[in-house]
Amino acid sequence: MTNIQSKIDLLKQRAIDLEVENAKLKQIIKENAKRKADNVNLSAENAKVKIELRRAMGENAKLKAESLREVKTRERIEKTMLELDGIYVKNNKLLAITLLVICIKVTFHKPNIMNTLLLPPCTSSANLLSYMISDKNKII
Prior knowledge:
mainly alpha
């Protein structure tokens, strides 16, 4: 009988061990179900992030293209302004020299005519040129 009792005790112990193992497995199954739900949520969130990333990349590409156009436009404007400044300075120098030549010719032919012109008193043509091209008078 002791033999049967020991077998019963062994079977009871085995049943207890199996119940403990079953409880552990149920806990693992529960954790796995939670992980699967988390994975589904993370996958959905990941899909949303990918869509937002594509939208942001498209917007970034658009802004980059606009920025490049603005840079090129600014460069063209700066180049044009430099060219116009060069033309302006060249034309003003030409105008100053032309006026000087006219004044010299007029002074040569009619020495007293300089007093009747609305120009500053100049003792020489060099003074007239320096007056015309000075920053204060803004001819050039």
